[in-house]
Amino acid sequence: MEQQELSLKPYAQNYGLIYGGYSILVLLLLYFFNYDQNTGISLLSFLINTAIVFIAIHRYKLDNANNLSLSSAIKLGLAIGAIGGLIYAVYMYIHYTYLQPEFIETLKEGLKTQVQAEIEHQNLKGEEAETTREIATLFASPFFMATSALISILLKTLFISLVVGLIKKN
Questions:
Q1: Are 82 and 19 in contact (CB under 8 A)?
Q2: What distance separates the 2 farthest-apart alpha carbons in the chain?
Q3: Phi, then psi, of 157 in degrees rounded to 5
Q4: DSSP secondary structure letters along 48-88
Q5: Which tops the pLDDT comparison, 116 or 15?
Q6: How far is it, in rounded angstroms, from Cα 78 to Cα 101?
């Protein structure tokens, strides 16, 4: 008799909440302690995110009578990334819209300077120059940053769950 697989939903919800909460915590710590994102912080954050996904997949495998398929590992990792990423993206939008709008303004000013230099370098005129300016300001919006963060988290959890799934599959 074939054994039925456990539902991924409770694992995805629990560890997705942990993933999103941890991501928010990192953003808040960076904000309150006036740290800039650097390689050390990024590496530590990646290792902790990897641990969250690894533990979720490991717990799922243990609770599922030591059975794990690669597709289940990927589904679980992506579900964790989707839940955690949505939580983080919503908070990130709120953070950069209300708590730290000066970051967006500074980013926009820096982009305007870079875009203007590029426009002058390429001798763009009229509508081309204006379109270039508009696209640059779009990249500095809280919505774009939140959407980029969500996509980044989904890709990161896909990669992590693929590697963990290949290691831990039966």
A1: no
A2: 73
A3: -70, -30
A4: HHHHHHHHHHHHHHHHTTT---HHHHHHHHHHHHHHHHHHH
A5: 15
A6: 30
For residue 141, the 8-state DSSP code is S
> Which pair of structure tokens corresponds to residue 80?
């964790």
Q: Is 169 helix (H, G, I), strand (E, B) or coil?
A: coil
Q: What is the mean pLDDT of residues 139-144?
A: 90
Query: What is the rounded distance in angstroms from the CA atom of residue 67 to the CA atom of residue 82?
Result: 24
In this structure, are residues 164 and 57 in contact, taking their beta carbons and an 8 Å threshold? yes
Whether the Cβ atoms of residue 145 and residue 138 lie closer than 8 Å to each other: no
149: number of CA atoms within 13 Å, CB side?
Answer: 24
- What digits encode the pLDDT tens for the residues 48-107? 999 999 999 999 999 999 999 999 999 999 999 999 999 999 999 999 999 999 988 998
pLDDT value for 78? 98
pTM over 0.85: yes
